[in-house]
Amino acid sequence: MKDILTAPFVEEMKKMTANMYRLGWDERNGGNISYLLDENEVSEYLDTAHVCRTIPIGFSAPSLIGKLFIVTGTGKYFKNVADDPQTNLGIIRIAEDAQTAELLWGFADGGKFTSELPAHLMSHMARLAVDPQNRVIMHTHPTHTLAMNYVHELDEKALTHTLWEMCTECIVVFPDGVGVLPWMLCGTNTIGEATAQKMKEFRLVVWAMHGMYGAGKTLDETFGLIETVEKAAQIYMLTAHLPRINTITDTQLKDLAELFGVIYRKDFLNL
Ligand code: 13P
Ligand code: ZN
Fold first, then answer.
1. What pLDDT does 226 receive?
2. Does pTM top 0.90 for this prediction?
3. Residues with CB under 5 A from ligand 2 (ion)
4. For burial by CB atoms within 10 Å, which of 1, 5, 139, 249 has the most?
5. Which helix or strand (DSSP H or E) is residue 102 part of?
C-alpha cells in the first residue's frame, strides 16, 4: 500500500487550499471543497473495505451510493490543510443507504465533513446529471465578488452581463453565466437544494452576500472559473464609482462567443 500523504489527490487539495487561502478568499474556516475520486486510484493508498466510522449526512444522495469524495472538514482552516491533511481533510464513501458517509481516512481529531455537505453532494448529483465528467464542487468567499454583491443588482442577467463586460475573456470562460441565490441560511438542506437547482443550468452560483460555488471536471478548472469571476468583480469594484468612458459592447461579446465557439446565454445580451 502506498502512503496516502503522497497521493496526487491529497497533494492537489493541499496546493489548492493553500493557494485559495493566500488569495484571501478563505478566512478562518471559510470555504469548502469536495472532489470525487476514482475508487481504483484510492485503493492504491487505502484499504477501502475498512471504514473508520460512519457519519449521517442528513439527506439522501441515491445517485452517489458507493462514490468516494475527498472533502474539507467543518471548522477547519484552509491555511492549515497542507501541514496537517489527515486532520483537515477526510475521504468519505456514500453508503448503501444513501444517507450515511463512511469515513475511510482523515478527520483524525474526530471531526467531520464541511457543514455545507448538502450543497456539495446535491450539486454533485445535479452536475453529474448534466456532465458525467464533473468531479469538483468548490465553495469560497472571494473578496471582490462579495463586495460587488453589496453594490450591484443581484439579478442573474444583470450580474452576468456586468461581469462579461469587465474582461474580454469572461464570456468565453463562463458563457453559461452566473446563477444567483438570494441570501439564505447556510449549512442547510434548503440552501443545498436551491444550489443544486441552479447547478442544473450554471457551473457558477453566487450565494448573495456570502460567497461563490463553482463546479468543474478538475480542481484547476473549477478554480479558474471562480478566479475569472473574481477578477471581473475586482475590475468592477475598481471602476464602478468612476465615469465609464469605454465598454465592451454586446456585439463584441457576441463576436467573441462565436469566434471561440462557446454556447452562451444569448438572453443575457441585449441584442
Ligand atoms: P465549514 O467550516 O463547515 O466548511 O463552513 C465554512 C463555510 O464557508 C460555510 O459556508
Ligand atoms: Zn461559506
1. 99
2. yes
3. 211
4. 139
5. strand 100-106
Arch. (CATH architecture) of 1-115 = 3-Layer(aba) Sandwich (3.40)
Superfamily per CATH, domain 132-271: Class II aldolase/adducin N-terminal domain (3.40.225.10)
Query: What's the Cα-to-Cα distance from 264 to each of 117, 173, 175, 261, rounded to whole Å?
Result: 30, 10, 4, 9
> Per-domain residue ranges for the chain?
1-115, 132-271
| 3 state DSSP class of 36 | strand
Site of grid cell 448534466: 130
Atom of ligand 1 nearest to the CA of 207: 10
CA of 25 to the centre of ligand 1 (A): 12
| 3-state DSSP percent of the chain in helix, strand and coil, to 5 | 45, 20, 40
How far is it, in rounded angstroms, from Cα 182 to Cα 172? 26
Q: What is the DSSP secondary structure assignment for residue 24, as one 8-state letter?
A: T
Ligand nearest to the CA of 211: 2
The mean predicted confidence, pLDDT, of the chain is 98
Q: Could you report the per-residue pLDDT of 182-233, keeping only the tens digit for each? A: 999 999 999 999 999 999 999 999 999 999 999 999 999 999 999 999 999 9
Within 13 Å of residue 246, how many CA atoms lie on the same side as its CB?
5
